[in-house]
Each structure stands twice: as structure tokens, then as C-alpha cells.
Amino acid sequence: MALKxxxxxxxxxxxxxxxxxxxxxxxxxxxxxxxxxxxxxxxxLTNMEQRGIQSGFDFLNTTAGFGIIQSLIPYxxxxxxxxAFLVSLINTILVAGVGVLLATVIGFVVGVARLSxxxxxxxxxxxxxxxxxxxxxxxxxxxxxxxVLKPLPAPRxxxxxxxxxxxxxxNRGLYLPRPVFDTGFDIILIALxxxxxxxxxxxxxxxxxQMATGAQFPIFRTGLAIIVGLPLxxxxxxxxxxxxxxxxxxxxxxxxxxxxxxxPIIPEFIALVLALSVYTAAxxxxxxxxxxESVSHGQTEAAHALGLRNGPTLRLIIIPQxxxxxxxxxxxxxxxxxxxxxxxxxxxxxxxxSVFAGTTLxxxxxxxxxxxxxxxxxxxxxxxxxTFMNWYNAKIxxxxx
Amino acid sequence: MKFKTLLAAGAAIAMGSTMASxxxxxxxxxxxxxKCGVSQGLPGFSNPDDQGNWTGIDVDVCxxxxxxxxxxxxxxxxKPLSAKTRFTALQSGEIDVLSxxxxxxxxxxxxxxxxxxxxxxxxxxxxMVRKDLGVKxxxxxxxxxxxxxxxxxxxxxxADYFRAHGMDYTVVAFEKADEVVAAYxxxxxxxxxxxxxxxxxxxxKLSEPDAHVVLPEIISKEPLGPVVREGDNNWGxxxxxxxxxxxxxxxxxxxxxxxxxxxxxxxxxxxxxxxTEGDLGGQLGLSSDWAYNIIKKVGNYSEIYERNVGPxxxxxLERGVNxxxxxxxxxxxxxxx
Amino acid sequence: MTKAQAYVKTEKTPDMPPxxxxxxxxxxxxxxxxxxxxxxxxxxxxxxxxxxVAPPLFDWLFFSANWSGGPDxxxxxxxxxCWTFVDTRIxxxxxxxxxxxxxxxxxIPLLILVAGIAALVIDRVPAKRWVGxxxxxAYPILTWILLYGGFxxxxxxxxxxxxxFMLTLVIALTGIVISLPLGIVLALGRRSHMPFIRxxxxxxxxxxxxxxxxxxxxxxxxMLPLFLPEGVSFNELLRALIGVALxxxxxxxxxxxxxxxxxxxxxxxxxxxxxxxxxxxxxxxILPQALKIVIPGIVNTFIGLFKDTTLVLIIGLxxxxxxxQAGIADPNWNAKSVAYSGxxxxxxxxxxxxxxxxxxxxxxxxKLHTGHKR
Lengths: 401, 337, 374
Fold this sequence. Notes:
The structure holds three protein chains of three kinds.
Chain A: H1 2-11, H2 18-50, H3 81-114, H4 119-132, H5 137-149, H6 155-158, E1 168-170, E2 173-176, E3 178-181, H7 185-213, H8 219-242, E4 247-250, E5 253-255, E6 258-260, E7 263-265, H9 267-294, H10 297-305, H11 310-340, H12 352-364, H13 367-396
Antiparallel strand pairs in A: 1-2, 2-7, 3-4, 5-6
Helix pairs in contact in A: 3-4, 3-9, 3-11, 3-12, 4-9, 5-9, 7-8, 9-11, 10-11, 11-13, 12-13
Chain B: H1 2-10, H2 24-31, E1 34-38, E2 47-48, E3 54-55, H3 57-70, E4 76-80, H4 86-91, E5 97-98, H5 106-111, E6 114-116, E7 121-123, E8 125-130, E9 144-149, H6 153-164, E10 169-174, H7 177-185, E11 191-195, H8 196-203, E12 212-214, E13 222-224, E14 227-229, H9 233-252, H10 259-262, H11 268-274, H12 280-284, H13 290-297, H14 301-308
Helix pairs in contact in B: 3-9, 3-13, 9-13
Chain C: H1 24-32, H2 37-63, H3 71-76, H4 83-95, H5 104-121, H6 128-148, H7 164-190, H8 195-210, H9 213-227, H10 236-262, H11 265-273, H12 278-293, H13 295-308, H14 320-328, H15 336-368
């Protein structure tokens, strides 16, 4: 203590006191931030007033008047801009969600393939990774859309008028039968929910029992049986009572110009999902490889010495340790994928940037509000994804004793 | 001076840092050029050639304004804008005038802080389909997939039209005109809809231009014209009267070729136009030979029409409603007096 | 007396050769392709896949492609690549609309760039520090003077005539040169002990990492004048550059932070105990170590930035991809193969650049790797 006081005295003035210095720096930074904020806001307000630009969020309640090619919730030209915003937000989440799932699956497969002892397989995986991660994503989106999907044959060229199909891939998209749920279907859903809850409960009980007694329980097989079986039984019962299946399929039919009915998946969606997941999967594969390689070889040897075969070694020893290395960079890949989905605007997929920060902005001219909302949405999507992944990361983190 | 330029460069790539001033005309004069918003490529209207030089009827409007102010039609910096960015760019001061086949509508004029200054081209929205579809009328289009541009009146009109006729459709809306054409050409859509002039312009880009037919229906009015920011009336007037001068010149029979002889004309209308009588230029804050410069260096309306979109161009558009009011059209400029 | 016969072998028996099935080509095949039934199946499937994809691909790319003749030749056979399209347009793809007679002004900085990078990457070249300083400080200024002009009697070439691969390089390099120092400052700020400074840096980094680049570019390209006093405006390219640089500096900051965290606490304490002030400590002790560790991460950020430059085409700047797209839209070249050829060409250019960068980063990674490898 005394020494420190001495030192301060030696330095001579408060100027050299780190505490005062730090306060000074912070006050200066605060002043700068406040000034910049004030400067920008003031300019914006002045400019908007001077140029007679309308402001406010009233436009969200006015009629949009334009059509959107894909919407998961009811939407028509008479809906409001607010509704259009919701439609486009859901489209963004849909493409990002499907993209993340697909990218993870491809990424893990390719990452493991890269480490394969099979020379051909590992070389193919290398070629995949080095090709796709070194080409700009926008170019890949163009490739899938313009070069792969658009040259497919037109439905009129391959289908007769009135023809009913179960599956058709043409330049208008992928057409599949759409399941339609009739009365009584909710019972099956309830059965499914019960089965899932029961399986979770069972697995908790099984792992507790294994910890206590060492006795194993075939949880995977039992769980699968319950989850598949219970809804099937419910299905049979409902079918008996109702006198018919509680679910039927709506098949696409060829009419005039194109197929109608069924479940159409537009080519813009397919192209975007393919491009996003193939591109991101190349990065995930590298992350997975690095994660698996980061687990010391001694772990494998020790597991083999304990008599574990390759499968259980991978599942019980390697993967849990590798995941700790994999999760943080994987999170940023998920975030990147979500943000990159905004490139949809290049190929007319109706995502947030294309419909809301595009068409809506243009029709209403309220650039400031719309860009602010758009950025806020992406920020909160990012924050939500990282919060979830951080939670998962904390759950699997090494518990130090 | 040298030091100052050095500073400017040192600060990085800052180019046109002009300080605040109230009038666009002063800003433009200080900058030595007009910033003109054009499309990203619509033949006949605004399109860069192989060398990156811009041509087209919308481009000529900007050149006319430049000729009126500087006596030189090439003091223009062209900014290619998408339908999405055009209004924001004008509102924010990114460009001085927007001449980009933009339809004059009440909402745009009233709520966006913009002013339309006249009509360069009277257009209407039409449909194009492949001939082999066998469609003869737009009323047969129920269930079709329609390709169009995002954020345009076109997108709204097509929605109105199909709704009014109780027909289904799916709309595929692209950002750039080129993308719409490519999508339609590859068969992504059955129908391509935009302004009929646009259909004519884009048709030349199709792989088989003759395999397509434009349907007879015109489903909307699309008066296309230059736009300026609200609040600077003098600037709006300059753009408005530059356009009017070209139309009046056609009516008075003044062309880029005979404009020098016409300077000696006794016709008081021509005298006022060419600045040998009255002070129309001074009222606009321009020199007295402003309109002379426009006609000499850019041409009258008929000339720019024939040069860019007329029957001898790939677009092959007849004058139609765009003929002078004296010749059965609706082109009517207020008198220059 | 019979002598006991004993067999004593006086020389060593030579080793038996390994079985024929475990050496040579056969051994390699067994080891690497057919080691188990599953592997055999996989190998056969993969080989079938290669046989299915490769021949038509190479045929399309090289053997049957149109290497000469005009648009008509490509229209005549649209099923193969049309390299004449790339050939006739190559100068536009590389230089945009930069005036023909002044293209040496683009070539010189490019040559210096190649030489500079070579000097930095090749181990034997001495005085790396000075080369690095030159490339980071003097080179951008020199390049700017040459490209834009306005000095020493060079004509001004306005930035809206810049385009093609040259524009791609300008954007990427500016982003790199600005984002590195900015990222270091942000990373230091994020680890600062001053809570408010830390807060600002965290907000800044998380904001830029959270929003998509195209909304940033959109904002910078059309909305910026709204935020500035009336009449103040920047060049459009400059604004895109600022957007790209801020965006990548946030990513750079996170990479550098990783390096800072990896330096052991002892290094910080050691520097403190020597009585070094904050900036001395950082400059002399911490940053040289931290930056060395994260070179692969920095290079990866560069690669990402380089690929992201393509997004400027959405705001109307004609970079390489934009120039190619503009070329594809040319009605004179409306053969179907033109689009594929253009995209493949662009992909190849980007691939070469990014792949060489990533190979370099691998090399550094291996050099720095001191841990145990299996």
C-alpha cells in the first residue's frame, strides 16, 4: 500500500494515475458516442423534414396490393404490409431453418468422410470442401438457380392436361402430394405427443438406473417403437371409429399452364436452400474434421484397451469430446447461414430483404423505418441462435471438478 | 490548390464533398455535373453500350438538362438504380434527377417527398406470352405464372387485374429487368408483364424474339417521366421546361439540324424558344440560349424518339399516343411564353 | 568318437518379403480402398460416381468446347462451353470500363501486389517487416494515385468507370488494409478494463456481425446522405468500401480476440512487472505473439471478405461477377451456354484466389502447430 502511494507521489500528478486516466478515456468515449449519435439523428430528422419524407410506422396497416409467391400463412393482395412483413419473416426463418438442418447433415457426413481411411472417399470429400468453400455464395446461388433448376423441362412439355401426379420436378418447382387432415387427426397428434413425452421420461429413468445399478436398457429401440407405434394404434382406432382414414393426400393436377394443388416447392426456395447448405456444409465439414482430430489419439487407444468397439468408441468417447471444440465455430456458421439467406433477393425468393426491404420499401418509400426493422430482425435472430447455442455449449462443456 | 487536392485524396476517395447550399442548381453548377438516376439497362430508355456510354430516351432527358445548364449534354454522371433503390436514392440526395421509366402516381408524388416534372413517354402495361401457348387474350391467363419486376406499379397492376377478373396467378418478382427476361425466357413463367415499351425493349434480348406475342390488352396507364425532390421548385422547373422545350421544338418544327437557321426566324414562338426574344432562360436561372443548346446538342422530342425507340430501332415502337396533340396523340406541352 | 552334429547357422536369414497382397499397388489398394466390405462398397459407389460425373464435365469444359468462332458457333452447339464469349469480353471482365490506353495504371499496382505478396509469403526473402509496412501504408496511397489520377499529370478516371476483377481487388484489399488495424483496436477494446469502452466495442462488434452485408451495403449506397448534413456526400465506391471495411473489422476483431485470449496470463503479468505501459506491453509483448497465432484466422477472414465483394453487384457496382452478368445479358450472345461459361469462368477466378490463400493459411497453421499430432 505504502509503496503504491509512494509511486503515485513519484509520478507527481493525477495525470499519471491509471484510475483517473481510465475515467477520462471513458468520459471522452461517451462524449464521442453521444455526439455522433446526436449528429446522425439530427441530420436525419432535418433532412427528412426538409424533403417532406413521411415517417412513422402507420404504413404497416395499409394494404400491400402485391402478390407473394410463397407464404405459409394466409396472405392475399388485400393483406397489409404488416402481414407481408410476417410472411417474409417466416420465409426467411424457413429457408434458414431447413438450410441449417441440411448443412449440418451434409457437413458431418463430409467431415467424417474426409477422415475416412478409404482413399477415394477422403479425396472426394476434400474436393467437395475445397471446391464449394472457395467460390462466392452468390455465384453458387446463381449456379443452382440459373444453371440447374431453370433448364428443367416445363410442366406443359412433360405432362398431359388433367394428369394427376405424385411427384414432379419441373422448372416450376418440385410438386408433392399435400397431406390433408380430417376430423380425428388431432387424436393422432396427441398420441404422438404422449409417445414423445413418454420416451423422454423413459430415457431419464433408464440413465438414472444405469448410473445406479449399471444395468442397461435398450432405450433407442424401445423409444422408436413407442413413437412409431402409439400414433399408429391411434390411427387405426380413429379409422375404425370414423369409418375411414383421418388423413388423405391432395395430389397435384395439371391444369392449363401448370400444376395446381398438392404441395409445390418453388425452385427459388430449392436453389437457395441447396446453395446455402452446400456452401455452409463445406465449412462445417472442416470444423467437424478439426473437432475430431482435436481429440487425442490416446483417447481412442484407451477406449480400445477397455474393449470398446469402433462404434461405441466414436459415440461415447470421441464425439462428446469433439463436440466441445465443434459447437462454438458451428454457431457462427449457423449465424452466417441465416444472414446469407438474405441473398435470396438475387433470385426472387420472397424473404425478408426481398419482400420487406425490397418491394415494401419501394412502394412506401419509408426506407429508414424499414431498414431499421430489417436490421433489428436479423440482429435478434442472431442473438437468439447464439443464445441457444451457448446454452447447448454450456450443457456439454467439460465439468471440472 | 495542390495541397488541397492532396488532402482530399489523403482523406481517401472522397470526391464530391460539396458544402451545404440551399439550391440544387447551385450544387450542380458547383459540382460541374448532374447526377442522373437511370435504369440498370433497358434498351431504348437507358442502357449502357459496350463502351459503357449511356443511351436512350431517359438518358436524353438528362442530357437535355445538362445542355440547358452547361451548354454541354455530357456533363452527366449516370447512376444505374434498381426499382428498389431509385426513390431512396433521390430522397437522400444521392441523385439530382431520376429519369428511369418511372410511372407518375399519386402516392409517389404525394407521400415520398418527390415531384414529377412531366411525361417523357405515355405507356401502358401489357402482357407477353409464348406464341405456342395459343393464348389470344389476357382473360385466358387464369392459373398462369407471371414474371415481373419487384417494387413497381407493374406488380400492383397485375395483382389488381387478376383480382378484378377473378383469376388465379402466381407472381415471380425479380429485382432486375435482365433477370425477369432471363426467367421468362427459360420458361420459369408463362407470362412476362411490364410496360409495353419495356416488352418491346426486352424482346430483343430473348433467344427467339419471334416466338413471342404481346397480347392486345393494356391494363393500366403508365405515364413515365423524370422525377425530382420536393422543395426545390426552381430545379423542378428546369427539368420540366427542358422536357417541354423539346416537345415545343417539335411542334414548332425546330430540329437540331435547322436550329441555326431558325435563329433568324420571325415566328415569335420560335424566337422565345431560342432566346432571341424574352427572358425565359433568365427566369429559370439559366442562360438565354438554354433551349437552343438542348435542341442543338440533343434534339427535339421527335428526334430523340426516333433515335431511341422509333420504328427504325430494334424496339419498333410507333408514335401512337406519344404523337403531338396536333397529330392525333396526347403529347401537349404548355406554351413557352 | 562321433562328433555331435549341431546345426549352427552363422549368417542371418534374410527377411521374407511381405506377402504380395500387402505391398505395391495391390497392397496400397487393399489398404486404402478395399480394407473392409463396407469400404469396398463405398469405393465402388464413389468410383461409379466419378465415372458418371467426370467424363461429361471434362468434355463440356475442354474437349468439345467452343474455343474459337463468334456467337454463332456457340448458338450452333449450346451443349458445350463457350469460351469465345469469355475471350472477347475478357478485358471488360478484368478492367470494367477503365479507359483502354490507361490500363497500365491498373497493371503496375497489380504487379507490385503480386511481388509484395510473394515477398511476404516466401520464407527466404529478408526484411519482411519493411515489405509489410510498405504494403500496408505506401502501397495503398500509390495505388490510389495511379488508379484515380489527378496527380503528376495523370488524367482522372472516375470510379464509376472502374469495374471487373480490378474493382473486386480494390474492394477486397481496401477492406483488408482497413479492417486489420480497426479489428485489433476493437479486440483490445473488448478486452479493456474500462467498462464503458468495452461496452461500446461489444455493441459495435455484435451489431456488424449480426446484420447481413447486403443491408449494410444498401444503407451505405442509398441512405447515407440522409444521415449527413445536407450537401455532404461521398463517392459511391468509397461508401461501399466503408461498409465492407466496418463489416469485416468486426469479424477481424473476434479473430484477434481469440489470439489475445490464447496468450497466457504470465505474459501479461511479466510485461506489467517490467513496468511497461499499456501500449508498450501490447505492441512489444502481446500483439506480436497473438497475431502470429491467429494468422490462419486472419487469412480466413480475408477469404470471406474476398468472396463477399461479389455482393456489391446488388447495389449496382460492376465487380467481376457483375461484369460477367452484364456480359451474359448482351443480346448478341444469347446462346444458352454463354451463362454457364461466364459463371464457370468467374468461379474459377475466385477459386484460384481463395484456394491459394487457404493453402497459405494451412501452411502457416502447420508451421505453428507444436502440439502432438497423431
